[in-house]
Amino acid sequence: MAYHRYDAVIVGAGGAGLMAAIQMAGNANIAVVSKLYPPRSHTGAAQGGIAAALGNTEEDHWQWHMFDTVKGGDYLVDQDSAEVLAREAIDAVLELEHMGLPFNRTPDGRIDQRRFGGHSRNFGEGPVRRSCYAADRTGHMIIQTLYQQGIKHNVNFFDEFHLVDILFTDDGECCGVIAYEIKTGELHTIHAKTVLIASGGYGRVFKITSNALAGTGDGVALAYRRGIPLMDMEFYQFHPTGLYKLGILVSEAARGEGGIVINGEGEAFAARYAPTMKDLAPRDMMSRFIYQEVREGRGIDGKDYVLLDVSHLPPEVIDEKLPDVTDFARVYLGVEPKEEGIPIQPTAHYAMGGLPTNNDGQVLIDASGAAVPGFYSAGESACVSVHGANRLGTNSLVDLVVFGRRVGRHMLREIGTRELPALPDNPEATAAEEISALLSREGGNRAADIRKAMQETMMDKVSVVRTKFGLLEAQKEICELQEAYKHVALQDKGKRYNTELLEALELGCMLDCAETIIHGSLGREESRGAHYREDFQDRDDANWLAHSMITRTSSGLQLQKKPVKITMFEPKERSY
Amino acid sequence: MEVTLRIKRFNPELDQKAHFEEYRVEVEPNDRLLDALNEVKWHQDGTLTYRRSCAHGICGSDAMRINGRNRLACKILMKDLGKKITIEPLIGFKIEKDLLVDMEKFFDAYKSVKPYLIAEGAPGAGERRQSPEERERFDDTTKCILCAACTTACPVTWVTDEFVGPAAIVNAHRFIFDSRDEGGAERLKILNGGSGVWRCRTIFNCTDACPRDIKVTEAIEQVKRALLFE
Questions:
Q1: CA triplet A107, A108, A114: central angle to 5 degrees?
Q2: Quick check: helix, strand or coil at residue B197?
Q3: Which among A97, A99, A500 is the nearest to B46, CB-wise?
Q4: A472, A526 contact by CB (below 8 A)
Q5: CB A115 within 8 A of CB A131
Q6: Residue A417 CB neighbours (<10 A)
Q7: What SS3 state is found at A158?
Q8: Is 0.90 surpassed by the pTM of this model?
Q9: How far B105 CA lies from chain A's nearest CA (Å)?
Q10: What does the pLDDT read at residue B125?
Q11: Nearest alpha-carbon partner for A242 in A206, A209, A216, A290
């Protein structure tokens, strides 16, 4: 048992965690805990770009970006938060450039910008060039740049430490975390004045996903188990263009550069559904268009996929602006994008929901907006909410840097005034018991079988299109899998790099995420953004212009509504 | 199709020395080797240990020696590997368990070349200007994912710890040739030292091993030329 004391502990070394760390480095005693080496974090897989109304290649304004964010999120976005996002994006992108991020450049040496889904000029008139990018590896450049800055600022990294519990006092103040050292199997109590959960999303609850195997919602689920509510969990984004069967992401940049999606009849069908934005309609809509085409028999050869075609683009555009994604098609599907369409299907991509926070990243305890002292979240694990019911492409990277920065600064102020709360007795007991039960159990269920069943259930019944009937079935199945999970047994009983144990712990977290996704989906009897109910096909602002907050209590799951903040843009019908 | 994976196993908690174990798995031709390893771990032997995360060649976790060549397990397909596949950990680093090696030495070498922008002057309100040509100058070396495939393919690193290795040089190159950076001289001084670029014997193993197709040997040569001629 090891004990450490810090001013701040940051869990997760992706874009949000590192951005926060850099704000505090040198001014506070901080630790960054990650189950991976930081540059392995999933921020690195982001491709297309980061939006900011720099106006480098054509007129643009942060108000336009804010509007697109609100409309893209089907008006479930908190507009004060969207304003922060759109305003501060400009400065945050420039800060990344100052840190050394190698953006693509315009002929006069400015950061180049390109089109992206849902981003428009003058409140929806047509596409605008707002996405700042570095080829189709913008996330890679962000994670590398931020890790480089972490090294420069001597940030204290706990590499390959797995979060297993979050600690709270009896008064509900956050006071640290328990982390499992993967190399040795030792539990570490990290006692801290402030804790930031920046542990990312949970796409691995679904069978087809663009997410890394590490995307298992650990921080979100562990907070939930400690009584923290989760917000808007029913909003899970399916990205329209994942490689067929694999789910590997093919960036929206492919369509931003002029690529089109075509069905089995050779038709560029997006124009039929979204006459203005066409193939650059937001992701939730594009995914539903594809679903509809497939269901009506217009998939390729009647199967469950369509084609993303970039073959008409100049070869140099493909090589210079889309090198990685076209390489994925070559490597994994044996398809040459310069000559033929890329088989694609919607892939589970991004959690709009997560830990509810205010604009400084403080986690909220309930719908009243009261914050949990010392407890923060940022990035995909958080729900501010700037993405509402559907996140626009490039806004996740904006979210990371804007709110990572804000939360880091707020924590720094908090550290100056806050006393270190006392730890609870035996702080590691819960985690130690859970791990020891998994290690000592003989002859039980395989975690892999439970995980596969969960992923299939979630994909079949809780993905692009949902019904009450399907959701109830899914609820029952996940409940059974949670029961089966109590009987998981491992073959690896060792302490050293026991990755089988970690995978089992991750499965437990994913089952909790799945439970809340289903509960939120059942509760929300309307269709909005990424949440589409076939039995309630319309948006219902009278009853559901509200966030959902789910809390696990001794008497079951409780669902509360939290009002949406509307400042500048009254909800309107969303058409593209 | 059925294939046999011949995997080098070593658990220092249990084993005196490394040994090979064989696993037969049913795979699709288009499966990644990582899928086959997961099949073993999830359904045959949960003790098999390796790193992995993104599963599509971006995060750099799963570099290993596959049929004698350093590759990412998630970026090579079964149809290209034959019916019997030998899988070993990277050479030159301490084996922690099975295919998982100690990366500390690798990251220490990376950090030793100051892999971050050094630019003391205030950047001003907007972005620093950089022409597309200046940006292109170091594009290739920005692609590095720190997987260590190149460094552990280099025979020099197998016989001495006194070489920072190709990956560290690639990351130094990325800044030395960035028009915005002012730390080139510091880095060149480091790479001119006893563990720097002159340890390179121009064997090209690094270039062959890079899963990102970075021209690693060429980048090292450019650093050498900068030391000699600039």
A1: 60
A2: helix
A3: A500
A4: no
A5: yes
A6: 7
A7: strand
A8: yes
A9: 13
A10: 82
A11: A209
